[in-house]
Structure formats: C-alpha cells, structure tokens
Amino acid sequence: MKNKLGLSALTLLLNAGLAACSDDTEPGDPPPIEESETKELATTKNDNKDDPNTITDETVTYKTIKKSKATEPITSGPFTLSLQSTSSSAEFTGETAEFYGIKNINYVQVIMDIAHTTEATDTFQGRFIKIITNTGEHIDPDITFSDMINGEVYGKVDLTGSYVYVLQNSQPEDIKWIRVLIDPPHDENKSEIGEPFDIRVDFQ
C-alpha cells in the first residue's frame, strides 16, 4: 500500500510538470509527449478546474507558481537536450503525508527531453544533475520524487526524464532562473565524447 501511495504521488507530480510545460509548446519546441503519457494525463483527476496551475487528487495538491519555455536544443557528443522547468509547491494529505514524512514541499522541477542520435552504446550522466538557482542554492535532485534518465543508452532513442529539486532557503516565486549542470557523456570505453552541459533556464 505504501509503495502504491508513493508511486501515485510521483506519477501525479510528473504529470503536473508535463502538463504545465506542454501549455507553452510552440513551433520549434520539442515534440509533444507520447500518446501513452497523454492518456495518463487525461485520467489524472483535477478538482481545481478553475485554476489550470493547480492539480489535485485525494492525496496531494500541486501548484505551479512559475514556468519556463523550452530551451533551444543543445548538443554534446551524441546527445541533444531540451529542457523546460517549473517552480512549484506540493501539499500532501493523509497517508501520503505519512508515507513521505512531510506535509508540503517547495521545489523546482526540470523536464528533460533527450535524443540519442547514433546507433552506438553511450552513457548519459543523468543521476547527479545539479542546479544552481538565482537565489544562491546549489541543489542535487531528490531521488524519491525524480524519474531520472541515467546509464547506458542503446542506439537511436528519445527519452524524457523528470528531476525534482527541493528548495531549502527559497520560495517558488523567488526563482527567476536556474543553471542545469550535467557531466559530459561517455562512450562504452568510459571515454568522454562531449562537453559538460551548462544550461540556463529562465522563468516567466
């Protein structure tokens, strides 16, 4: 039961970020989310129909405070990335609050679209992606709430990941920009095949 609660909240958090980011899709932006993800979004209950920035079910309420547009695609080695981000808050209730041991969090969520453009087997260093905020926080992703892309990537493939960074000394409305820092990719011989990513994302 506890695992189900955790998975439910994680899925809703991911969907909240995808929904917020997909609102601003423009020509030249990354492709929309896959059909399977769209169906999952469509089945998410939302009791706040008058507030498109709030998503609620019986266990948690997510509120998007600020969001960014998609960054221009950035390439390092065989990987091309595009990012969108939100600054948000989450309020847990009942058994979900008990499961996580917290009632609310403020956080930055980064939705990352990655294209691997060769048939080779390469490694994307996605587990320890740090961000720096304009408020001076240096934050590692929260493993509990993130759906990370990490490890070996086989052949040409498109991937989407979600990275959640819990704010310690800032409020979501304080976030004006973040820098996303990613180590360079490696080939199957553990050799670097690109430059580190240092991507600035501006919030509206």
UniProtKB/TrEMBL annotation:
Is Zinc tagged as a keyword? no
Signal sequence bounds: 1-22
Compositionally biased tracts (Acidic residues)? 23-35
The alphabetized UniProt keywords are:
Signal
| Extent of Basic and acidic residues compositional bias | 36-52
Q: Where is this region: Disordered?
A: 20-55
Q: Which residues form a coiled coil?
A: none
Keyword presence, Signal: yes
Domain of life of the organism encoding this protein? Bacteria
The UniProt entry, under PROSITE patterns, shows: PROKAR_LIPOPROTEIN
Q: What is this protein called?
A: DUF4352 domain-containing protein
Give the species: Domibacillus aminovorans
Q: What is the phylogenetic placement of the source species in the record? A: Bacteria, Bacillati, Bacillota, Bacilli, Bacillales
